[in-house]
Amino acid sequence: MVLMGRHFLAILDTPVDLPGFLIQKAADLKKRPADAPLAGRTLALLFEKPSLRTRVSFDVGMAQLGGRVIYLSPQEVGLGQREPVEDVARVLGRYVDAITARTFRHETVVQLASWAGVPVINALSDFEHPCQAIADLLTIHERFGGFRGITLAYIGDGNNVANSLVLAAASVGLNIRLASPPGYEVPDQVKQAALGRAKMTGADVKFLNDPWEAVRGANVVYTDVWTSMGQEAEAEVRRQVFANYRVTAELMAAAAPDAVFMHDLPAHRGEEVDPDVIDGPRSVVFDQAENRLHGQKAILLWVFDRL
């Protein structure tokens, strides 16, 4: 089947200028909503994991662009269990115009893209969360008016969110320091790709183990849960490993005076972040959550080649 449109599977796969382009388009859409450019189009939401922000923002975003959404729960499809991934992809490709997939394994998203014949968007896999990174950087751009000279400190697990965040930051010239416990850093593949992008854009990218070193003077402090979905058996071990990586008021005080706090949600208050930080005046987590809508509208228009 001939692919109509483009996939958005990982920041790692994108041209270095694409994240910045999508962020600018998302900002434009937030100010001036598009007039139903996706009328008559149908998006399938194919989820193996539950979601609040991802499901609602894609559903509302597609509606605002004039299209419609069909939600498919894990029980309805059973990817790779009830039916092979390639069969699900080929069937959906005959019914819908694009697929947004939220999966446990990144390989599942890649398989869907290989077989569907329509654009596939990664709404979260174990390797990347690229839609979140676009919303995150849109939030930073709004707050500081750009990326040059701004430093983001990410504290915690080198997970899918961290992978997309460091690659996107390096792509737009945003300085970023990641502090993770030894053995929990982002993969070498991501490190090397981020450093390569940074050479092109002038971003300063550092991979550290000390959260205080990462936060010192930073404009943005970002963290994520210590235990992601599918890692529940590791929860107690991770609590011990990450105990010194909690974002507290004391840690925030080491950042720049204008520093903001970010978290992709859901958050575990009292674990990776203290309540007085995430619910305090420096927190922009709900601006960040709102921007999932605008970022994903830009992604939808891009995969349909309407930008």
Give an overview in words.
The protein has 307 residues and is of the alpha/beta class. The protein has two domains: 11-129 and 290-303, Rossmann fold (3-Layer(aba) Sandwich); 133-285, Rossmann fold (3-Layer(aba) Sandwich), CATH 3.40.50. The protein has 13 helices and nine strands. The chain has a five-stranded parallel beta sheet. Helix 4 (85-95) crosses helix 5. The longest helix is centred in the C-terminal third of the chain and has 19 residues, at 285-303. The radius of gyration is 19 Å and the shape is globular. The protein starts with 17 loop residues before the first helix and ends with a helix.
Envelope shape? globular
User: What is the count of structural domains?
Assistant: 2
Q: What is the CATH topology classification name of the largest domain?
A: Rossmann fold
Q: Indicate the CATH class of the largest domain.
A: Alpha Beta
Instruction: Quote the beta fraction.
Output: 5-15%
Put simply, the count of helices is 13
Tell me the span between the first and last alpha carbons. Answer: 24 Å
Judged by helices, strands and strand pairing, the structural class is alpha/beta
Helix content: 40-55%
Order of H and E elements: HEHEHHEHEHEHEHEHEHHEHH
CATH superfamily of the largest domain: Aspartate/ornithine carbamoyltransferase
Strand count: 9
Unreliable spans are none
Radius of gyration: 19 Å
The major pleated sheet works out as: 5 strands, parallel
Strand order of the largest sheet: 7-6-5-8-9
Q: Could you report the average pLDDT, rounded to the nearest whole number?
A: 95
CATH architecture of the largest domain: 3-Layer(aba) Sandwich
